[in-house]
Design goal:
With 120 residues, the chain is mainly beta. Helices cover 0% and strands 49% of the residues. The strands form two sheets. Strands 2, 4, 5, 6, 9, 10 and 11 form a seven-stranded mixed sheet that branches. A four-stranded antiparallel sheet has the order 1-3-8-7, with no helix packed on it. Strand 4 and strand 5 form a beta hairpin. The termini are far apart.
């Protein structure tokens, strides 16, 4: 069974950091692009960051300089390091895998999401 599982979410104070993980099972991520998206209550799902199979990275403007996406193919896992978190970063974060790197939600496989709450 092909599956993506996110972890690492939680409650953090403004200015704090979290590292999200996206672990794959049932398939290897080596030749997949991985995207991170987020969805806040009442809002549409939006693109956060993506990494191609060759390592190319793309970020939404609102996270540039704060978030870093990386991949460890040996662990079949992609990470999203989030620093300088703001209350507006509060959302459910999803990872997704696809053959083509996109900044739209047109990915083939999705995880169940992990909640990130930034609040004092």
């Amino acid at each position: 069974q092909l599956q993506l599982v996110e972890s690492g979410g939680g409650l953090v104070q403004p200015g704090g950091s979290l590292r999200l993980s996206c672990a794959a099972s049932g398939f290897t991520l080596d030749y997949y692009a991985i995207g991170w998206f987020r969805q806040a209550p009442g809002k549409e799902r939006e693109f956060v960051a993506a990494i191609g199979w060759s390592g190319g990275r793309y970020y939404a403007d609102f996270v540039k300089g704060r978030f870093t996406i990386s991949r460890d193919n040996a662990k079949n896992t992609v990470y999203l390091q989030m620093n300088s978190l703001k209350p507006e970063d509060t959302a459910v974060y999803y990872c997704a895998a696809g053959v083509v790197l996109r900044t739209t939600p047109a990915y083939d496989y999705w995880g169940q999401g992990t909640q990130v709450t930034v609040s004092s």
